[in-house]
Amino acid sequence: MKLRSTETFWPLKNAMNISYPSISSDINTEILIIGSGITGALMAYKLISEGKKIVLADRRDVCNGSTAASTALLQYEVDVPLHELIKLRGEKCAVDSYNNGKKAIFDLRTIIDTIKSDCGFEFKKSIYFTSFKKDIPFLKNEFKVRKQLGFDVSWLNKQDLEKIGLNALAAIESKTAAVIDPFKLAGDLLYYCQQNGMQIFDRTNITNIHSQKGKCIAQTDSKCTITADHVIHCTGYESTETINEKIVDLKSTFAIASESMPEIPIGLKNAVMWDTSSPYFYYRATSDNRIIMGGGDEEFKDPKKRDNLLPKKELFLLKQFQKRFPNSDFKLDYSWAGTFGETKDGLPYFGKPDPKKNEHYVLGFGGNGITFSVMGMNSILDSINNKKNQDLEYYRFGR
Description:
There is one protein chain. β9 (206-212) and β10 form a beta hairpin. The protein is built from 13 helices and 18 strands. It is of the alpha+beta class. The mean pLDDT is 94. It has helices at 9-14, 38-49, 66-69, 82-89, 91-115, 136-148, 158-163, 182-195, 266-270, 303-324, 369-377, 380-384, 390-394; strands at residues 4-5, 27-34, 54-57, 73-75, 122-130, 153-157, 170-179, 199-201, 206-212, 215-220, 225-233, 249-258, 271-275, 282-285, 291-298, 332-342, 349-351, 359-363. Strands 1, 4, 5, 6, 7, 12, 13, 14, 15 and 16 form a ten-stranded mixed sheet that branches.
C-alpha cells in the first residue's frame, strides 16, 4: 500500500542522518515489532525500558510511512465529539478516552525529555471552531457536556476569535494540546532503542507469519526468518492487509505547508485549530514560522487518483485558509497526500485479534494517531502477559 505521495515536509526538513541495514540472516528474538513509524518506535521504547530483547523491521526506510506525512497535532479530543462518543460507547469509555488522550500528551513530553529529543515539542491550546451558524447549537452542546464532565474548556465568540486572527463564529478552547515534529521524534526513539540493544532492519518486507510450537515465525521476501515469542504489528493503515475484520474506512487526505512567514496569526502561535466541517480542516504552526493545514479528504485510497488530485487540492486548501485567516499571506512551499482512516467510534484498536496467536496490534487511526500510540504503549505489556487491562477492553477487536 502506498501511504503517501510526493515529498512530504518532515523528511526534507530533517534529512536522513542515520541508516539501518536490511536483514541478511535468520534471527531469534523475544519480540518482533513490525513498523518503524511513531507507533513502532514508542512500543520499542516501552519494551526496551522493560529489558525485553527486540527486533524491529520495516518494509521501507525507517519512519517513511504515515509518520512522514503526519501533521502531528496532539489533542485529547478524538475525531468523534464527546457527546456523540458517549452515545456510541457510554459515558465511562468516552470520558476515559478523552482523559487518556490528555495524559498521553504529558507522558509523551516525559519520554521526549528522557531521550533528549529535539523534536520541537510545544504545549498549545486547542481551538475547535465553526464557521457555520447551523453548527453553533452542536458546538454549544459539546461545550456543555465537556464542562459538566470536568474538562477545562472556554467558550470563544466571534469577537474573541477575531482578536486572534481567525474568521469564525464560535469555538471551544481546550487548555491541553501540543505539536511535534513526528519524523524527528520517531527517528530519535529508534536510535535510543538501538543504542540500548534493539536490532533494526529497514527495507525488510515480512511476507507471512505462522505459528510453530508456540513461536511466531516471520518470513521475509529475502527468505530470512525472524523467530519470536510475540509479534507486535504497528503497521497502521497497512494492517488492513493482515486483519480480516473490517476496522477502518480508508480515505485520501491532503496537506500543505507554507513558506516561513515573518508573522503568523497570533492564534496559531498559541493553539492548534480544527473545525466542524465534515471532513474537517485543521491548522498548526511550526517552530520556524510555517503554517501547516490539512483536510479535503476524499472517499477513496487509490494512490494514482490521489496524486492526480494534488494540484487541485492545493488550491482548495489555500482558499479555505484565506477564508479563515484573511489577513495572512500563505505562500505555498510543500504539499502532499496520504492515506487516512476513520473507525466507527473514532477510537483505536489494541490487543490480539486472534486470542490463540501471540500477534498483537497497536493501531491508532484518525487524527489522534500519536496520542493513541502513547496510550497503546501503556497497555502493550498487559497484552503480552495476557493480563486484564481497561484500555484493552475499550479498544479491543470485535467490539
